[in-house]
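User: structure tokens for D-2-hydroxyacid dehydrogenase family protein, please.
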Amino acid sequence: MRIVIPDDYQHVIHTLDCFSRLAGYEVTVLHDRQPASTDELAERFADADALVLTRERTRIDAALLARLPKLKLISQTGKVSSHLDLAACTAHGVVVTEGRGSPVAPAELAWTLILNARRQLVPAIDAFRQGQWQVNLGQAVAGQTLGIWGYGKIGQRLARYAQAFDMPVLVWGSAASRAAAQAHGHQAASSREAFFAQADILSLNLRLSDTTRHAVTATDLGHMKTDALLVNVSRAELIAPGALLQALDSGRPGFAAVDVFEHEPLLDPNHPLLRHPRVLSTPHLGYVEKNGYELYFGDAFDNVLAFFDGAPTQVANPDALKGRSDC
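Assistant: Done. Predicted tokens:
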């Protein structure tokens, strides 16, 4: 059986402890950084019995699947998302398995961005390396209100961090999220407008879906304080196109820290968010962490082994199993 793992542009998958689980299989790891065309993917995947996808880096659609008659399995790291046409996989008899996610690394990165952005560490360090001493004045986070939109595993973790840093927490989201926040001793915002207006630091922690895509508008951002910080380690598409830059240029909010972009990988050093003096940007590092990778790929490799052993697990499209004799 041939397994293909695309998009390892960091050249790290073979260094993971869990990679040894694939010993005995023919494994090809691809290292392209730029997204490949459908023709290129069809050629590279032509002999693959299974694909192991790194999060959402490769798009799998009906046009590509039609050109991969040998493909039997797609093992997704983490959860299946919109990059993968699940219905088309089922129609082509391709089984899709999925794994777990972890809130640890993205929550820690969000907190790192908050502290760095508030203390303005990057410009201070850059100036220091150029021979300058104490060029700016940062802010401590104690006493500042942390707004959290999306009180799930990551949001709840951030709320606990905030408590340790003496920050009040204000939550917006579904009725269930707000009720959970209040049960944990936090405040639920009285309205969406109040949420944006009252938060000193506002973190977006929503899943991207049809209902959350472009949920944050320029009007929402315009309610924020002139010295507020917007943090987004979730998905760029949660914010309406162009709204963040428009808001920053209008002075509300005063600052942003972002780990996600509409088109990734972002390789243009002149992108306006990278060049903006009041934006701290990182290259989608939220899930890029060794223990997280061991979890993501460990699950994905285990699902490959289970499938070829004839006992598939964590199947996202069980209808694709019907009529198969190889699992």
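User: Anything notable?

Assistant: The chain has a mean pLDDT of 96.
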